[in-house]
Amino acid sequence: MIVPVEGVVLDGSSVSLEIVEFPDGRFLEMDLTNAVVPENAAFWTTEINGRPQGRSTARQGSTMGRRVDKEVYGDTLIVTFSAVTSDDLVLATTGEVRIVD
Q1: For residues 57-75, b (16+ Cβ closer than 10 Å) or e, as one string?
Q2: If residue 71 lies in a helix (H) or strand (E), which one and from where to where?
Q3: Burial class of residue 15, CB neighbours in 10 A (0-12, 13-18, 19+)
Q4: Any idea of the CA torsion for 17, 23, 100, 48, to the nearest 10 degrees?
Q5: Which strand ranges, in their side-by-side order, compose the sheet holding 63-67?
Q6: pTM of the model
Q7: Per-residue pLDDT tens digits for 38-91
Q8: Hey, which of 26, 32, 84, 86 has its CA 20 to 30 A from 57?
Q9: Distance CA 19, CA 36 (A)
């Protein structure tokens, strides 16, 4: 699923979100190949079902993953992916995205 990232002048910016099954668990894969990093962005942050899931350095072109086992998260994930400053000011976000497995 390709999700647009909206915020400070990010024409064409998007993030690809996909649930991937591996023998050792289920993961949410986030592909940032087409994500434009806003000026002043320090981190990408991920929230799943209303819970912060961590942050990573804001850069374009990386792929990240978060473990999202059904026993913990269920069949439906509500994901928010954002670019934030070092003070947690949101510069760009996907908003809430519902993914049903």
Answers
A1: ebeeeeebeeebeeeebee
A2: helix 70-73
A3: buried
A4: -60
A5: 2-4, 14-22, 25-31, 63-67
A6: 0.82
A7: 889 999 999 999 999 989 998 888 888 999 998 899 999 999 989 999 999 999
A8: 26
A9: 22
Q: What tokens does 95 get?
A: 């908003």
- Looking at this protein, which amino acid is placed at residue 51? R
Please say whether the beta carbons of 25 and 69 come within 8 A.
yes
Where do we find the tokens 């289920």? 26
Buried b (16+ CB within 10 A) or exposed e, 76-85: ebebbbbbbe
For 14, the token pair is: 């998007």
Torsions phi, psi of 9, nearest 5? Answer: 35, 70
